Amino acid sequence: MTKQPYAEPWRIKMVEPVKILTREERLAKIQEAEYNLFNLAAEDVYIDLLTDSGTGAMSDRQWSAMMLGDESYAGSRSFLRMKKTITELLGFPHVVPTHQGRAAENVLFSATIKAGDIVPGNAHFDTTKGHIEFRQAIPVDCTVDEAADPNLELPFKGNIDTRKLEACIAKYGVDKIPMVIHTVTCNTGGGQPVSMENIKAVSAVCHKHSIPLIFDSARFAENAYFIKTREAGYEDKSIKEIVKEMFSYADGMTMSAKKDAIINIGGFIALKSLETYRKCATFNIMFEGYLTYGGMSGRDMDALAAGLMESTEYDYLHARISQVKYLGDKITELGIPIVKPAGGHAVYVDAKAFFPQIPQIQYPAQVLGVALYVEAGVRGVEIGTVLADRDPVTREERPPKMELLRLAIPRRVYTNNHMDVVVWGLQQIWAKRESYKGLKIKYEAPIMRHFTSTFEQL
Ligand code: F0G
Q: Which fold has domain 23-52+314-457?
């Protein structure tokens, strides 16, 4: 018996037409954009895989929930509904709304991190790292070594190595470590999940030393899907049961609701400790807004609550992650190197292995991103030397271990026919891969250069 194919547990009620330029037109557009994909007008992109953040399609239930939005400044029904959903689903009694994920980081870290502190974690996301370093504190990457090898096909490459974590605590001392941040799934490491066993082990280490454990939870539901499908003992548990157990080991969480709450803007902090909540409250009022909206409108909070319920349904997650796997498998069939296995939200093409003739300081992943736009109108994002930026002290380039082009798939937006176009585009480039040359930076900003740099071809 063959396995029944998967299909999306939704049908399409509204569509958004997209423009398809010719190859020549795209060539002109990317030259005008000086080879930076961020400089393109979105309407000149056919299939936009720049990010899965805020780009998902809301459901009819979410849109109708928006009509119930209560825009009261204080104590709105929308906030209370959102808070109730978060408490019931994730188990945290205290909720601080923010306008997106990095805002949650800003508020929580303002209340808890000081200069000289150390924040261990699993390959912190850029904004997380940025908010730690901005406070003259140091993020320490304790991810398992296996994560650095794109060819190793392991189920939980986002795990924290607890020996590295113990060594970090022994080296710097508990007083310097305000929290450990576990990112579920780990975006920087290739959208790789964290196992429940690892969550338990990390939680045990943290709590032995009385260090709070915080989850960076942007893609927590996708992580739960991997636990259900890859970890023994969880096959028969529902996603909601798994999610509840995951968060039971944490003391708090930051959330970019633009991912697994499937809304276009929003975020929050959720906490067990009333004391930490009170500390965050002051900063939230200063930076984000009053404690019952924090930069979101009432209707956003209602859509957020509905989105959290939908993203933690198995059928939704199965279709979503199967689509990412579909793209990963098709690319792999052509012999094109990717980070294995495919992540929860994205496929990461290994540009170093794709273009061995291009040195890392000539930005092979940027070259691949530009080429994919020209060939197929697809926009990915460089996660390599451009993004890694210069060392803040020496100003030298600091090429990372992996040089990747991330193809992040928005939730409920594209069909597998779109994925086939992406694969076709990569195939065109692969066939003439030896003919590509590197790029040189023309202009770069002193920090976060990847957004605004301009390039010229070598
Ligand atoms: N944490 C993780 C793991 C993220 O991936 C992101 C955003 C954030 C925090 C910050 O959240 O954007 O709402 O402020 N990631 C996006 C991306 C931008 O494309 O991967 P935000």
A: Aspartate Aminotransferase, domain 1 (3.90.1150)
Contacts of 181 (CB under 8 A, 6+ apart): 119, 120, 121, 122, 124, 128, 139, 214, 215, 216
Which of 48, 132, 187, 288 for a ligand 1 pocket mutation test, highest count of atoms within 8 Å of Cβ? Answer: 187
**Who's near 304: CB < 8 A, 6+ residues apart?**
82, 257, 261, 263, 266, 268, 296
Per-residue pLDDT of the chain (458 residues; tens, 9 = 90+): 788 888 999 999 999 999 999 999 999 999 999 999 999 999 999 999 999 999 999 999 999 999 999 999 999 999 999 999 999 999 999 999 999 999 999 999 999 999 999 999 999 998 999 999 999 999 999 999 999 999 999 999 999 999 999 999 999 999 999 999 999 999 988 999 999 999 999 999 999 999 999 999 999 999 999 999 999 999 999 999 999 999 999 999 999 999 999 999 999 999 999 999 999 999 999 999 999 999 999 999 999 999 999 999 999 999 999 999 999 999 999 999 999 999 999 999 999 999 999 999 999 999 999 999 999 999 999 999 999 988 878 999 999 999 999 999 999 999 999 999 999 999 999 999 999 999 999 999 888 899 999 999 99
Q: Which atom of ligand 1 sits closest to the CA of residue 219? A: 3
> If you measure from the C-alpha of residue 266 to the centroid of ligand 1, how many angstroms do you get, rounded to a whole number?
11
- Ranges in the chain annotated CATH 3.90.1150.10: 23-52+314-457
Active-site annotation holds for 126: yes
Ligand 1 contact, 187 CB (< 6 A): yes
Q: Which of 109, 125, 226, 354 is catalytic?
A: 125
Q: Are 303 and 67 in contact (CB under 8 A)?
A: no
Peptide bond into 254 cis (omega under 30): no
CATH 3.40.640.10 maps onto the chain at 60-311
Task: Look at strands 252-256 and 267-271 and give their pairing.
Answer: antiparallel
Judged by phi (left if over 0) then psi (alpha if -120 to 50, else beta), residue 191 lies in: left
Ligand 1 contact via 216 beta carbon (within 6 Å): yes
Quick check: is 450 catalytic?
yes
Q: How far does the centroid of ligand 1 lie from the alpha carbon of residue 125, in Å?
A: 7
With a 6 Å cutoff on the Cβ, whether 127 touches ligand 1 is: yes
Taking the C-alpha atoms of residue 426 and residue 429, their distance in angstroms, rounded to an integer, is 5
Tell me, yes or no, if 236 is annotated catalytic.
no
| Domain 60-311 fold | Aspartate Aminotransferase; domain 2 (3.40.640)
pTM for this predicted structure: 0.96
